[in-house]
Structures are given as C-alpha cells and as structure tokens.
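So, read this over?
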Amino acid sequence: MDNNRFSRRYFFYGSLLAGAVPAGGFGSTPSLKAMGFKSVLDKLNIAGIGVGSRGGADLVPMSVSENIVTLCDVNYTYAAKTFDRYPKATKYKDFRKMFDAEAKNIDGVVIGTPDHSHTPVALAALQLGKHVYCEKPLTRTVWEARLLRDAAHKYKVATQMGNQGFSHEGTRTCAEILWSGEIGQVKEVHAWTGGIYGGRPKFDGPPPTHPIPEGLDWDLWLTTAENRSYNEDMFKRWRAWIDFSGGGSLGDWIVHCLGPAHLALQLHLAPPTSVECVTVTGVNQWLWPESSHIRYEFPERGGMPPVTINVYQNMRGDAKYPDGMMEGERLFPPSNNLAERGRNAPPEPGSKGRPYTVQTTETKGSAKPATEQDAKRHPGNGSLFVGSNGYMATTSRGEGVWLLPSARWAEYKLPPQILPRSVNHQQDWVRSVKGGVVGCSNFDIAVPYIEWLVLGAVSLRVPNKKLMWDAKKMEFTNSPQANAFLRPNIRKGWTLKL
C-alpha cells in the first residue's frame, strides 16, 4: 500500500493537540497545577450531577481509579441505585447548593442530566474552574455550544463530551480506511436511526397535567426551560419533547452514528453551507417528529470534495445499497472490536444478526427489497459511506466497520494505525485532567460537531425549506424564522453568560 495516500491534511488531532500540552503533561508545571490540573499520581475528586441513568453509568469506569465524592439528582428515588453504589458520597438535589458546599472538594464534574440542563450545569462548573465531562448532545442550540466552548477557554479546564464512539477502535479505523484511499472520494453519506428512544407520547390537544411524584423537584428539573405543568412523559420520555432534547433522535443516536463521518471526512474544517428537512411526518408543537429525512451540504475542505450527509430518522430513505450484496447480507457490520480481535481479523461475512438488506439476484444493487414491509423498515443504527471506488459502513457509535459488499472485507488488510487509541471515553477525560493528552471529544472538537448537527433540529422546525447557513455570522441568511431557534428560551431567574 502507498503510505503517501495518508495526507497530513487529514490528521484530525495533530493541529488541535500541537503545542496545547506541556511536555510533562498538564500536572507538570506549577501554573497548570494552580489551575486545577492533577498529577497522574493523584486521585481526582469527582462530582456527578444527573446520576439516575447515563450519568451514573459514566461514573462507573471513572470510579475504578478516582474518588466519587458527591452526587446530585433532582429525584433521589430515580438515582437510588447510584447513591447506593457510592455510600460515602454526599448527596444533593440542587447542583447550585452542591457547588456552594462542595466546590473546594471537587476537581471534576460529570453531567448526565437531560439535554436542556447541560448548559446551565456545565457553565456553573466551568465558572468554578472545574473540569467537565458532559453527556451528548453537548447542547441543544448553536449559541449554547459556543458559550460552553468560550467558557472552557476562559477558565482553562479539561473538557469532554460523552459521545463514546469517538473513543472506539472502529471509528478511528474507519477514518484510516477512508484516508488510505480504499473507497476513493466520498461525496455522499447516509445515516439511519429508529424512533425516538423511549417512545413518542400520544395525546390530543395540550399535554395533560399529572401530579408531581413525591421526591421530585420539578421546578429544578426544568432549570432554564419554560415553566410547564408536570407531565409524566416529560420526565420519563423527555427526548421526545422539543423543550428538553437536542432534536429527538438527532441528539440521541444520530450524534453517535455520524461520529465516524465527522472524523473521517474532517467536517470540523468547514461548516455546512445548508441544511434541509426534506420530508417529515408527525409534526407537533410540543414533540419532535415521528420520522424525517434531513440533508446537510458541506463544501470542499482540506482537499476533500463537497459532501452531502443524509439523515433518516425512523424511515428507510432512498439510499441505493452497494452493488454485489448477496441475499440476506446485512448493511451494517456487527460490533467487531478490532482491538480485541486483532487488526487483521475481520468478521465473517455471514455474521449473525437481523439481515438488514433482503436482496435477490434480480434486485442486486438496487434499493428495492423483497417485501413492502422491508421497503419501509429502517436498517438500524449506522452510516453508509458512498465512495467513488466502493462502499464502507459503520455501526451505531462506530463499534463496527467494514467494506461492502462484505466479501470485499473478508480478505482486506487494514491500513497502518495512525490515530491514537483510548482505554475508554471516560478514562480519556480522566487522562486529559491528569496526564496531559487532550480529550478526544473536548469542547474544541465537540462544539464544531454539535453545532452543525443541531442545525438539523432547526430544520425540523422549519421543514421543506433549504436553509442557507453563515457560520461566521451565526445565522441563516434566508430565514428569520429559523434564526429564532439558534438560541434557547431562558426563563426568568436563570442567566447564561460568561
């Protein structure tokens, strides 16, 4: 293989990391120690906020090496499992009271609250000079994303967005395959996911009001969001609600599925020129749609050609499957952990799992499946790269990668490993605080990604219109209506500023 095909212009991490870290690590100089960076020999004191679900899971791999000293959740019943796991940790409902009482004892903060609370909680932590690990999607709006990036710069702390796929072996292998030139120039990507996680509530008229459960501080759960009467689906299935999530499935699974594309196609180098909600069903003033097709257009960047990114939520879409796929062959690979299997030990082409494509010799290479049900069924969570010289697919967060048809993958030898690897995403952040290597999804990396992704959420609210984006001015040039959704509503009593 011609190693010259690895152009320096494709090195995602190099320009971001160069000169950013002292030779001995963040804990190696007195000035950086004064700013709160730790020696590798010291244990971090970590606070968890929003620990009933994802936030509690994030703490587990950190607790192997660090101290979990204080926990915060607006619902003690919901967070009981995490509270029981760390019985010595102090407990709070209000993160502001926690910071008032515990700030001197905390080095870093892990945030696993619903999306609408990410910015107020993260900003408060950053302003105290605390290192921050915040779950995906980092924010719901472009304005919030830039605010948190600016705060991280101002307070000089280590940050990480909790999109675990950026630490997966498959994500980085995907980039290395693409950069090697194996599938040629990529001008088209298709990404799929299913319905909104947890389901989409059904009701006629305004959302019904329910009694607030004992133990839940509903007003505090709302944080900056508009004051609304309690509805049990708002709390239990908040991802479906426009007020509380970053685009429904966009901020849940598509943020994972498009991670490999963002890295491999170097989408941080140039923002999209446009975004459009091409088709949509189930439009509702309270809830994100039932299904949609969103299209982003990116210009040439770093020597790569313009590329169109298609996102399908809960729908099959119109993507043409690769030529040469066999009957029953699945579109997305299994979670082939290349680090464990060995880099040149690809999975068998007939891997177990639902056959996402159902094709015969007559329909080979077409998008026409065998049945009407198959024609409507989305293929799962993942992305398909369409290159001038072949196809490549990734699964979910990037756990799996292969060439298509999979017969092409069976004898394929992976290119040289040129990107650094992570132990896991949480420890990648711990290392950035203690050892000096900047987190692979720190806010300088995460914000450009989230910024273009949440433009799709705006398009869902202004469907069937191609919205032209000017990133420098942070505005759509052809839609005042869309511009109104670039900043969040912030209710009285809350402020968000540096």
Q: What stands out?
A: Residues 9-166+424-450 form a domain with the Rossmann fold fold (CATH 3.40.50.720). Residues 1-32, 339-370 have pLDDT under 50 and may be disordered. Residues 42 and 323 are 55 Å apart (CA to CA). The chain has two domains: 9-166+424-450, 167-206+237-410.
